[in-house]
Write a structure and sequence with these properties.
The protein has 236 residues and is α/β, with parallel strands linked by helices. The protein is built from eleven helices and ten strands.
């Protein structure tokens, strides 16, 4: 059997490689929309796994960032164009900012150099804050992203705690550790004969909010008490 990590691209690669070997995927934004499974309740075929609902989560990230930097008239969204989930994510973000009356600047980066170029354009776009797509490539480049956000003095929000632990400002998203544990349980059940089609795709039900006060101070930001009170972890 196959267990994939690091998001949508690896899950799609596994699906294209075999239609018979059981596959458990993790961290996929929209498994139905991109054609991995026919439905969440009855996946059909040889795949099942765990969604991170990244597109829907983007609206929450924008909400938190707007609460943190209410004076920002332009919010940038960094996405990886090589990820099939980028399109739905952009649409969710556009709907969210439209309701707030602010502008959305979409930045695209699929390589290390393109990340540098995206940040260089923030000043020209007059973006006062940044949302980073919960993409596997970006997670692997978190040190670079956090350093660039610091260098350009831009408040940025991420979907994974690892970014905040590396010096990022704030994150809101799922904890991957229990998800990976449940993926292992699914794999064990399949090795004992369970069929992927009979195991529903699971969506996250709990999320964690992590804040780095040291980074906030370096950016000249005061974290509102309304956000601090909701935080699951505060790094000082």
């Amino acid at each position: 059997m196959i267990v994939t990590g690091n998001g949508t691209p690896t899950a799609l690669a596994a699906k294209s490689a075999t239609s018979t070997i059981p596959i458990v995927f993790t961290s996929v934004g929209d498994p139905v929309g991109i054609g991995l499974v026919t439905s969440l309740a009855r996946p059909d075929g040889n795949l099942t796994g765990f969604s991170n609902i990244s597109a829907e989560l983007t609206a929450k990230l924008l909400d938190l960032l707007s609460e943190l930097v209410p004076q920002s008239g332009v919010i940038a969204l960094l996405v990886n164009p090589n990820n099939p989930n980028a399109g739905p994510l952009i649409r969710y973000a556009q709907e969210a900012v439209h309701a707030k009356g602010v502008q959305l600047a979409v930045l695209k980066a699929g390589t290390e150099g393109e990340i540098d170029a995206a940040f260089a354009s923030l000043v020209q776009l007059r973006a006062g804050a940044l949302v980073v797509d919960p993409d596997g490539f970006f997670t692997s480049r978190r040190e670079q992203l956090v350093a660039l956000a610091s260098r350009h003095v831009v408040p940025a929000i991420y979907a994974h705690r690892q970014f905040v632990a590396a010096g990022g400002l704030i994150s809101y998203g799922i904890d991957d550790t229990p998800v990976n544990r449940r993926a292992g349980i699914y794999a064990g059940r399949m090795l004992k004969g369970a069929k992927p089609a009979d195991l529903p795709v699971q969506q996250p039900t709990t999320f964690e909010l992590v804040i780095n006060l040291k980074t906030a101070k370096a950016l000249g930001l005061t974290i509102p008490q309304t956000i601090l009170a909701r935080a699951d972890e505060v790094i000082e």
